[in-house]
Amino acid sequence: MTTTETTDAGIPVATFYAETDVAPGLAGRLGAPGAPPFTRGPYPTMYRGRLWTMRQFAGFGSPEDANARFHFLLEHGQSALSVAFDLPTQLGYDSAHPSARADVGRVGVAIDTADDMVDLFEGIPLDEISINFTINATAPIILAMYLVAAERQGAATADLAGTLQNDILKEFLARKTFIYPPAPSLRLGCDVIEYAAGALPRFNPISITGYHAREAGCDAVQEVALTMASAIAYSEALVARGLAFDSFAPRLSFHFATTMDLFEEVAKLRAARRLWYQIATERFGATEPASGRLRFFSGNSGTTLTAQQPLNNVVRSTIQCLGAVLGGAQSIHVMGYDEAYEIPSEEAVTLSLRTQQIIALESGVARTADPLAGSYFVESLTDEIEARARALLAELDAAGGAAAAIEAGIPQRWIAESAYRLEREVSSGERPRVGVNVYATEGDETHFGGAFAADPGVAERHAARTTERVAARDADTCQAATSAVTVVAREGGNLMPPLIDAVRAGATLGELADVFRSVFGEFREPRPW
Amino acid sequence: MSPTRVLLAKPGLDGHDRGIKVVAMALRDAGAEVIYLGLRRTPEEIWHTAIEEDADVVGVSVLSGAHLSLAEVLLAERARVGVDTPLVVGGTVPAEDVDALRAMGIGAVYPVGASLPHVVESVLALGARERTA
C-alpha cells in the first residue's frame, strides 16, 4: 500500500471523512431530488416513480438478424431498444461499396435504405418502444429513415420516443466515425436538434457524450469537462441560429461511462448534474427548470473488462451498474462478460439484463432517491470533481471552446497520454487487475465455444437486396428529391425535410452521404505526433 | 545501429485507436522510430508508405472483428509490391483466429490481454531480425 491513496482521477483520498470535510452550504448545493440544481437526480421520486430503462446495445448482420435479437431482448424483459449500426452505415457507405465489404454487418446492423429500417423494426411498435440509435455522422439520414419507417407503421411522430446519439464532436475526439469536417458536421447535428424541437416532443435528438473519451483513456474529471464543453458548443450554435435556449435544452440528453471506482463515479454523475444546471442558468439564462435538468444514459466500461478469467467481468459489470444506479441514471447498458473480444453471445446479454434486474428488484437500492447524499466522503468528492471540472472547462474555453480545442488536438493529447499512463500502471503492477497482474494463473484465457461469428454471406446478400430496391424505385422522383438535398446543403436551411423526402423516395444512405461529401468535403485527422 | 523503424496503421473502417496509440508511445519510449499513419488506411497506402519509409515492421490494429479479411488483403498487397517486411496484427482476435492469422503469414498476433511489454519486445525482435536479414 502506498502512503497516499488517490481515486482513479488522481484525487487524494483521506483515511476517513468527517463533517468538517464538507464545505458549508451543502443544502443549497444539493436541493431536493427533482429540484434545482438537480444534484440529487432529475426527478422527485426517482426509481420509485419509474425504474431506469434497461437498454442493451444490440445489432449485427442484416436487418432481419438484428430484428430477431431485438425480439429476443424484449421477450426477456428489456424495456427499450438500442441499435448498433455497422461501420459502413456509420460512415455513409452502402453495403456494396468496395470500402465496406469487410465490415458489413459486423459491429452492428447494415442499413442502406428506408425499407431496411422498416425490416429492422418489423413487429416492434415504434409508438410504444423507445429506440436508441448509436449513429453520428449519418444521424440525419438515419433519423429520416426511422421517421419513414414509423410513418409506414402508422405511428404518430408525436408519440415517438428514443434517442439519437448525434454527437459529432466526440467522434473527432474519440470514437472516430466522422466523415465531413467539423463545421459542416456541427451544422448537420444542429439541423437534427432544431427539427426535433418542433416535430418530436418525446425524442432526444442528441446524446452529448463523455463516454467515448473516457473509454479512449481520459479520467472522470476530464470526462465531465469535455461533455460540458460539447454541450456548450451545440447550445451556442443553436442559439446563434436564433433558437431560444429553453426551446431545445429540455431535450438535450447526456451519456457517461460508469467504471470501477464506485464512489468517484457516483460523485462524478452528481457533479455533472449540478454543473449542467449552473451552465444552463448562468451561461444561457435558462428560465425553464427542465433546461438545466441533466438526464443521462450510462454505459459500463468495456475497457475495464479482461480476456483473462472472463467470468470476473460479471462482477466488474455489477459494480459499474450499481454505480450508475447510485448516480441516478435514466437508462443503463451493462457489458457482456465476453465483450472484451466479441459481440456478446445471447447468454452473456441475458446475464447483463439479469444483472440490472437483480439490482433493481432484489438489492433495495432503488427504494429511495440519491441514497449516498450526505456522505461526508461522497459530498466532498462531488464538490472536488465539480471544482476540477470547472477548471478544465476554463482551459477549454480559453482554447476557444470544444470545437477549436479538438481541432488543435488538445483533448486528444489528454486522452492518449492518460491511456498510456494507465497501461504502464497495469504493466508495472501499480494498478491491480485481478486475473491479469494479480491472482493470474497460466491458461486463464477461456476459449468460448460458439463465439459470435459474422455471417460471411451478409455483405453480398444485403448489397443484392439494395440493388433490387434501387431498381424498383421511381428514378425520377428519387433523383428530384436527392437534388433538393444538394440544393439545401449548398445554399443553407434545415436539411431534415428534404432528407425525409429523399429516403421516402428510396434514396440510399450511401447516395445521400455522397451528396454531403461532394458539398462539404471529407475530413482527415491530423497526425497526433 | 540505427533504431528499428515501425509503421503503424488502422486498416478498414474501425476507429478504435486507443490501443495502437499506446503501442506507438511504448515503442517510441523503447527507442523505435514510429510512423503512425492513422485511421482508415488502404493496403496500397500502407505498403506504399512502408517502402517509402523503409519500415522494418508494419503493425495494424483491428477491433471490428474484420481481422481475417483485412489481413488477407494486406498480405496480397504485400506480395504484389514484392516486399517481405513482417506484418503484425493486434486487436480483438479470438484464440482460434490467432492460429489462422499465423498460418496466413502474419508475423505475430497480439490479441486482447497481450501485455504491453510483450508487444514491444516482440515487435522489436521482428524488426531486428529484419535489419540483420
What is the oligomeric state here?
heterodimer
Secondary structural class of chain B: alpha/beta
User: How many strand segments of chain B?
Assistant: 5
What string, H for helix and E for strand, traces the elements of chain B in order?
Answer: EHEHEHEHEH
Instruction: Order the strands across the largest sheet of chain B as they lie in space.
Output: 2-1-3-4-5
Low-confidence stretches of chain B: none
Number of domains of chain A: 1
CATH superfamily of chain A: Methylmalonyl-CoA mutase
Helix content of chain B: 40-55%
CATH class of chain B: Alpha Beta
Distance between the termini of chain A: 36 Å
The level of helicity of chain A is 40-55%
Instruction: Tally the helices of chain A.
Output: 21
Radius of gyration of chain B (CA) equals 13 Å
- Biggest sheet layout of chain A: 5 strands, parallel
The appropriate CATH architecture of chain B is 3-Layer(aba) Sandwich
Structural class of the secondary structure composition of chain A? alpha/beta
Report the biggest beta sheet of chain B as strand number plus sense, adding barrel if it closes: 5 strands, parallel
Shape of chain A: globular
